[in-house]
Amino acid sequence: MDTDFCHSFPAARGMQAGRPCYVAMCPMRLIPKIFVFDEEEVPAELRAQRTLNRTRIPEIVEYLVNNPTGYTISAITASIDGKVTFQPSADTGPGSNLGVLSVPMDVRILINDGQHRRAAIEQAIAESPELSYDNIPVLFFIDEGLTHSQQMFADLNKHAVRPSDSISTLYDHRDAISELARSMIKRVEIFSKLTEMEKSSISNRSTKLFTLSAIKNSTKALLLKGKGDGVDEEEKDLAAAYWNEVTLHVADWQLALDKKVATSELREQYVHAHGVMLQAMGQIGADLLVKPRNQWAGILKGLKDIDWARANPDWEGRAMHHGRISKARSSVVRTGNYIKHKLGLPLTPSEQAYEEGETI
């Protein structure tokens, strides 16, 4: 009988919310075979998991395949629809919470959290069979019915907090664009002293003026970089030179750097203290950097003559909508268009389309 055959895992036994649970290290090659995720055959109201977002899977597969000796993958949480046995280790005694978990092959093991990891592991092993010998931690619960499994899924995802783009940029040492942003912190004085490194928004009382995520996105636009593109030292130097030149011609930034004005006051009163301006300057710089340095440096001197005050009605419909700063793509482009006009720079056809209301 099938019940005579089991999957056996070295495991640790524990209790959570009054229910037994087990943490086991599961070989990757078993993940596609023993974990059920039957989204096509079972309607949503009868499932314990959400429908797969298949656009997420290739990114995880690429990460696993490209980093065979350096990837990190979090645990899968699953429910076992049937009886299991736990045999304490002989070395630690009958009451030990370390031992072997045996799961009959005829029971269903449903994923509560980790269905995208499961699908990615299956594809990654097909591309790199050596991954099949690695292990992934699995947290097993004993299934108490569909309602409880659905509640587990809701609870797990309700309390999951996505890290901010700034802190992801700070910690991501594989991504060249994140490294580019961190290098700007070292090479541009105002960034080094006035950047919020962990959050992607700045509170009213913060003493910072920029976020690391805004610097990343603006410098990415400046150098016309896409996902996966590399960045060499010469490009980093050029980007730093550009941002240092911009800083020279925004007097209020210099005052903030010298602690002669509060950054909170600048955010309250000026457009240049918000990410929409930094992003716009990144896009403008992409056009400028094709020119010799003495030319684009000379053009940037015109920044001194721009009225950056939020009270300036020219910013409405550009950096602001109904008096509030806007981060929308259209706001970035139309803010850049206004700055270009003040600097005497022509608009590209796509930028002109925003002015004529043809692009939203």
UniProtKB/TrEMBL annotation:
It comes from the Bacteria. InterPro entries: DGQHR-contain_dom (IPR017601), DNA_S_mod_DndB (IPR017642). It holds the Pfam family DndB. NCBIfam families: DGQHR, DNA_S_dndB. This is DNA sulfur modification protein DndB. It comes from Marinobacter antarcticus. The lineage of its organism: Bacteria, Pseudomonadati, Pseudomonadota, Gammaproteobacteria, Pseudomonadales.
